[in-house]
Structures are given as structure tokens and as C-alpha cells.
Amino acid sequence: MEILRVKLERAGYTRGREILRDVSFSLQAGEMMGLIGPNGAGKSTTIKAILGFLKHVEGEVHLQGDCRYGYIPEHPVLYDELTVWEHLELAASVWGIPQAVYTERALELLERFQLREEMHHLPRAFSKGMQQKVMFVVGFLLQPELYVVDEPFIGLDPRATKTLLQLLMEERRRGAAVLLSTHVLDTAEKICDSFLLLHQGRCVARGSLERLRRQIGRENASLMDCFDVFTSV
Questions:
Q1: Residue 134 has what pLDDT?
Q2: 189 occurs within a structural domain
Q3: Is 84 a domain residue?
């Protein structure tokens, strides 16, 4: 089942100065797509266009039915005066999740990300990696049909990275789709079903790693090899 369909003819922050042109793709239930490209290629702009954060967009973004999405940004967005647990309570109340439902899952997620002892602390004093883990707990608590995750591996320790990958796989088995923007290509190669490669605001390659390999004529090419070829023009 198609969860997300995107067709961006033009998109940017100011009218007449488009950053994106002709970026189109779809995402199926249970699919993880890697959104990759050099710095300035348009990855963050694509995410903002999907989430409705851009004023100047020509095209369409279609979410299936009553599909809910969870956005985990590159830079944590947290309230200074709320504890970790209060962040979870706020998110659950906004989404209308009953306390009996979210409490058990919240405690499980805090345990998996090793935040149980910090649950009543203010995350404003946490390291960037710990703040990012709070964002993950909030995102996974909601269990949406679509996850949009921007550069999640920066600042994470190996254990937290492993936990994140395990949870993403569990959510995919549940049927959630994942759009993952990352520069960590070796990890993306292992976990993503498909890729959307942007360069200079345009889609220069799209599909599975096998498809990308066929396009460059190299049967055993890595994702990095494909990246180099498509972005060298």
C-alpha cells in the first residue's frame, strides 16, 4: 500500500528562487527509503516541502487516508521547562493516546534508550546525543504510519544507534514507512530498500541499490560508488 506520494515541480524558500525541481517519488508501507545527496543538494528542503513547512511549493504531497507522520529532526526540539516524562505526556495528549496505553510503551522505550533514570530530569542539560534519544522516544511512542527522520546518527553512541536501527526495523514490520535522510552511506546501504539521490536540487537517481548499480554499469558497486558517479556531473 502506498503511504506517501510526492511530486514537486518546484519548491523553495522564496518565490522565483527554487531549490528543488522535478523531484518525485512514492513510499510504500514497510519500505525504508534513504534520502541522500551532497550538502546543499536539497534534502532538508524536500523534507520541509513534504511536511508543509515551505510557502513556495508547486506540486503535490499525498498521504494515504488518515496517515499520521512522525518527524524526528536533525537538531532536537525540546521545551526548556519540561522533563523527559512531561514531553512524553504532552505528545501522548496531543495525539489522544490514553495513559494506560502510552505509559507501558514509554517506559519500555526509555529503558531501551537507557533514559529510565533521567525520565524526570530536564533534557535541556543533556548532551546532544541524549537529547536526540529523547526525540526518538517521543517519535516511537506515537507509532505513526510514516516516519521522516533527518540525520539521526550524528552524536549517537553505538548502543543507541543499534537500538534506533532495531526499532526502525520493528516499525517497518508493523507496516510503517520510513524516509531517512543521512550522509552515513554504509549504514543506509545495509538498511534501506530504496534510495532517492538528489544533486543540485534534482533527482538524479531513484530506486534500489541494484537499480543504481545497473545505471552506472557496475554490478558490485557500493552505495558510495553510485553516489560518486551520480554527483560528479
A1: 97
A2: yes
A3: no
Determine the pLDDT at residue 66: 80
Burial 196-227 (b: 16+ CB within 10 A, else e): bbbbebebbbbbebeebbebeeeeebebeebb
In this model, does residue 233 exceed pLDDT 70? Answer: no
Residue 91 placed within a domain: no
Q: What is the pLDDT of residue 176?
A: 96
Q: Please, what's the b/e burial string for 63-100 (b: 16 or more CB within 10 A of its CB; e: otherwise)?
A: bbeebebbbbbbebeeeeeebbbebbbebbeeeebeee
Average pLDDT in the 130-154 region? 95
| Number of domains present in the structure of the chain | 1
> Percentage of residues in the chain with pLDDT exceeding 90?
86
Interatomic CA distance for residues 72 and 217, integer angstroms: 35
38 in a structural domain: yes
Determine contact, residues 167/112, Cβ cutoff 8 Å.
yes
